Structure formats: structure tokens, C-alpha cells
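Two proteins were folded this term; both appear here.
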Amino acid sequence: MEIAKQAVCGTLQSNDCFIRLYPHDDGIDLDIKSSVMAQFGKQIEKVARETLAEMGVTSCRLFLEDKGALDYTIRARVETAVKRANE
């Protein structure tokens, strides 16, 4: 699945994350910013990549700004951004 247009989802409030998703021609490009990057950065990236793969996204640029979101929140935000990008 290709990302058709830019989309955003989420907030910068505590326990949430803000997603910006852009079309991109060269695979998956992730940019993750988190206050807990040292402890949970690999898990945040894993959840984002798995969600994109499950939705069939093969190329996009995803900026994820995390404020302590749990896995299910990250998954929901990525899914919503992908759906908005392909409306």
C-alpha cells in the first residue's frame, strides 16, 4: 500500500503520541522522538513497523513523537494515520 497524502493523528499530551505520516518512495523511514527513548525506543519502533507491515504499507515517512504512550496507543495512532492518508 502506498501513502497517498500527508496525515496526522494523536496529541502531545502525557501517555499519548503524535504521528505525522508522509508519502515516501524509498521504503519505511522512521523518525522517533521520545522522552523514554533509552528504555523503550526499540519497542516503540517495533510496534510502529509491525503496524505498518500489517496494514501493507511498504513505503512512507513516519514521524512519531512519543509522550509515554503504551503499545496499543501507538498502534491505534499509526493505524488511524494510515487510514487518513488513504481516504
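Next, the second protein.
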Amino acid sequence: MRRRAVLLALLLGAASALTARDGRLSVTVSDARDRTYLPAAFGAWHEAERDLRSLGLTMPDVRLEAASSAADFARRTGEPWFVAATTRGTVIHTQRLGALAAQGSLAITIRHEAFHAAQPPALPRWLAEGLARVFSGEGGHDPLSPTGLEQVPEEELDRLLANRTGPDLPAAYREATRRARQLVGAQGWARVLARREVSRSPGFNASPRR
């Protein structure tokens, strides 16, 4: 099996906590059951890193911290229950790896957050979220029906995405993805990633649970 075997496994204070590192990614799991999913997490990460390099993006050293439960995730991040993960600088917080795997969303979540860790800092929130959903493949599961937000200005789309408990949030993610996909189709990844708009978002991105 290719993978440098989940290098450097170090037990932390609690018996169930474990930190493993492979390349530029270190992963800390707080629930012993999540150790089973470390190879899958590293595999998805390395594939994402390879694909990001092909887009001209450089991956920094990143730390992923998997919570022990949904309540633990909310306590650490202040995010609502339906959020799968959030990236703040070079630190990714996720729900339990096992919970993501049970939903079939572990690889998609890793790819989504990998994009956020490597994205140009000047991207506005709507574009960053839309591109992350295109890159991860998450947007491929969106319904084909209209979002109802086609005429909403970008500033308003940013606001809807920032308000993560609003009723329009699912449609806002879909609309951001639709616009990002159109831009990539018309201009290509390189030109879209080179946009230098001033970001209106705070320094983190969050992914809803799939």
C-alpha cells in the first residue's frame, strides 16, 4: 500500500488522542475510532495536493484537528451542527472522521478544505466557496433547478454565506458554485484564481455537512 504508512504516530495526553503526520499534513484525532480513517484522510489529501499543484497553487503545512463529537466540534469552532469542517488559516477543524466517512463525505470534505488552505487570500467569500465546491466535486451533487438567487449581487451572496444559519444558505452555496463554475468554464482556473478582489469575508471558511 502506497502511503508512507501514516508516519510519526505520537500519542498525546489522553489515550484516545493521536497525531499522525504525512508530508505537509498532520492530523490529530480525539476519538480512537478515527484512527481507522487516517489512511483514507491522507490519501484524499495527497490527491488534492497534487490537483492543487496542477492549478498553480502551493499547499502550506496544515494541521487538521478532528473533533470527538458534534458537540466538541461546535465547542471548538462556534459553528452550527450541520457544518462538516472549517478552515482557519492553516488549521482545519472537522467533525469526527468516522462521521464524515459514514456520510460518504470524508474525501469531499478533505478536498474542499484543502482548497481553502491553498486558495489565494484575496478571493471574495462567494468565489472561494464556489471554487472549493467545484474543486472537491461537491457541486456535482447539486440539483439542476434554479437557485432563486441568480440576480443577487455578489455582496449579498457573501452576506448570505456568512449567515450560516439563514434559510437561504443551501441556495447560496449552490449559487456560488454555479457562478464559480461559469467563471472557470469561461476564463479557466488560472485567470479566476488570479482575481485580486478585496475579500469581505473573515479569515476562515466553513463547509456545510453533505
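Residues 1-14, 197-204 have pLDDT under 50 and may be disordered. The chain has eight helices and seven strands. These notes refer to the second protein only.
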